[in-house]
Design goal:
Elements: E1 6-10, H1 16-26, E2 39-45, E3 48-57, H2 63-69, H3 73-79, E4 83-91, H4 100-120, E5 126-131, H5 139-143, E6 147-151, E7 157-158, E8 161-162, E9 171-176, H6 181-185, H7 205-210, H8 231-243
């Protein structure tokens, strides 16, 4: 197979069912929902589909990635939109050939940031992925110059946050899409062109518990009938919401 004839492009809406069906049939984790900031990609040669990829939002928390970046907690949740997660990568049955996987990953890297800019209003600076060492050796990612930065702790993101039961740790790989990416991500001042939404941060349990203490001395102007919740608790919740990006 001539690898120069391969191209990678986003999946068209009318192809969604075919894409999802192939992932469900051939990927050990099945398909992933196309919600939020997510783009589905297909690698093709002429008319033939060779590989499928999903790029979505970055993991909220990943200690190995965060240590590698070296960013301050104050900035982390305001920069996550600049990281994309390669959540699925599948070479389709019958398409396996030498260097195909690394070629497809390289083609994805060349276009994903511009695609993200066009769809979501900001680029990507870094890609991450999680590889289960029980099943894979990450040979394709290593061949495509992705960098292993450690292992995850095995906690899985769910609708309510994170599952408190640790599963099997995954190997964490990253791939920079521009130079000096770590310095850019941890810079105290983010260029306004790359800001998205409102500033965000995440409060720890200890920080949240301490917030009411700051308002303990404020006189409560409410009448007794209206005091369903303590004033320090209500003010602490409001302040926490603002710190985490709420404006309503």
């Amino acid at each position: 197979m001539n690898l120069q004839e391969i191209s990678v492009r986003p999946v068209a809406r009318e192809e969604d069912a075919r894409f999802k069906g192939l992932l469900d049939a051939h990927h050990y984790l099945s398909a992933v929902a196309k919600i939020g900031h997510t783009i589905w990609y297909v690698a093709i040669r002429q008319w033939q589909w060779l590989a499928l990829l999903v790029v979505g939002a970055a993991a909220w928390k990943c200690a190995a990635r965060d240590r590698w970046i070296g960013w301050d907690r104050r900035y982390q949740f305001d920069r996550l939109h600049l990281i994309g997660n390669n959540a699925r990568f599948l070479i389709l049955p019958g398409a396996h050939t030498f260097n195909l996987a690394s070629r497809v990953l390289s083609l994805l890297e060349q276009r994903v940031s511009a695609d993200w800019q066009a769809r979501f209003g900001h680029p990507l600076w870094l890609l991450e992925t999680f590889v289960d060492p029980r099943f894979f050796h990450a040979t394709s990612y290593r061949a495509a110059n992705w960098l292993a930065v450690g292992e995850s702790r095995g906690f899985r993101r769910i609708r309510a946050g994170y599952d408190n039961r640790a599963g099997a740790p995954k190997q964490v790989f990253v791939r920079a899409l521009l130079g000096s990416v770590r310095a850019r991500l941890r810079d105290p001042i983010l260029d306004p062109r790359y800001r998205y939404g409102v500033p965000k941060m995440l409060l720890t349990d200890d920080q949240m518990r301490s917030l009411p203490d700051f308002f303990a001395d404020i006189p409560d102007p409410r009448r007794g009938q209206g005091r369903r919740h303590p004033l320090p608790a209500a003010l602490a919740i409001a302040v926490a919401a603002v710190l985490c990006g709420a404006r309503g």
